[in-house]
């Protein structure tokens, strides 16, 4: 780009906006779940082990009281189960159920479908390069934002 004048920059901004809009899908009723609920289920699915509320609180950076409320709602929905610790009866572990795994799998398949489509259309190398430049831009933007604060 020879001359980064405002007309060219407006065109670039429109391209970025168009690209971003294509990657974000609208909510569908069956996939609506609060972000904290999805995050907690994802943590359990990724860990592949039982976790305590305190561990989840640390991983997610949320207050234990909030984690407890989320656990109760997900337990009532059948997406996770609670198990008492055999040694310390005050302590319990939570693990994701098959219904919970199915829920997050369906949600992620839906929401990630545009990026998977982009990956398939661009191919490994071009997709990798695109992600490398996006990460570079995000790093620059983040550093620039920190210096202004």
TrEMBL record:
Known InterPro entries for this protein?
A: ArsR-like_HTH, HTH_MarR-typ, WH-like_DNA-bd_sf, WH_DNA-bd_sf
Q: Name one Pfam family in it.
A: MarR_2
Does the record carry Transcription as a key word?
A: yes
**Gene Ontology MF annotations:** DNA binding; DNA-binding transcription factor activity
CDD domains attached to this UniProt entry: HTH_ARSR
> Which keywords, in A-to-Z order, does the entry hold?
DNA-binding, Transcription, Transcription regulation
HTH marR-type domain segment(s): 1-139
SMART domains per the record?
HTH_MARR
Task: Say yes or no: keyword DNA-binding present.
Answer: yes
Q: What is the recorded name of this protein? A: HTH marR-type domain-containing protein
Q: Please tell me the species this chain comes from.
A: Clostridium bornimense
């Amino acid at each position: 780009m020879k001359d980064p004048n405002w007309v060219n920059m407006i065109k670039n901004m429109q391209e970025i906006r168009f690209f971003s809009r294509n990657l974000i899908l609208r909510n569908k009723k069956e996939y609506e779940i609060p972000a904290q609920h999805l995050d907690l289920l994802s943590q359990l699915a990724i860990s592949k082990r039982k976790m305590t509320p305190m561990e989840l609180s640390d991983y997610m950076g949320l207050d234990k009281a909030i984690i407890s409320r989320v656990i109760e709602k997900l337990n009532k929905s059948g997406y996770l189960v609670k198990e008492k610790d055999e040694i310390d009866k005050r302590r319990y572990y939570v693990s994701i159920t098959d219904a919970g795994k199915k829920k997050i799998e369906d949600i992620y398949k839906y929401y990630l479908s545009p990026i998977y489509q982009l990956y398939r259309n661009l191919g490994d190398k071009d997709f990798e390069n695109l992600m490398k430049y996006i990460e570079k831009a995000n790093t620059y933007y983040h550093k620039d934002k920190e210096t202004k604060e």
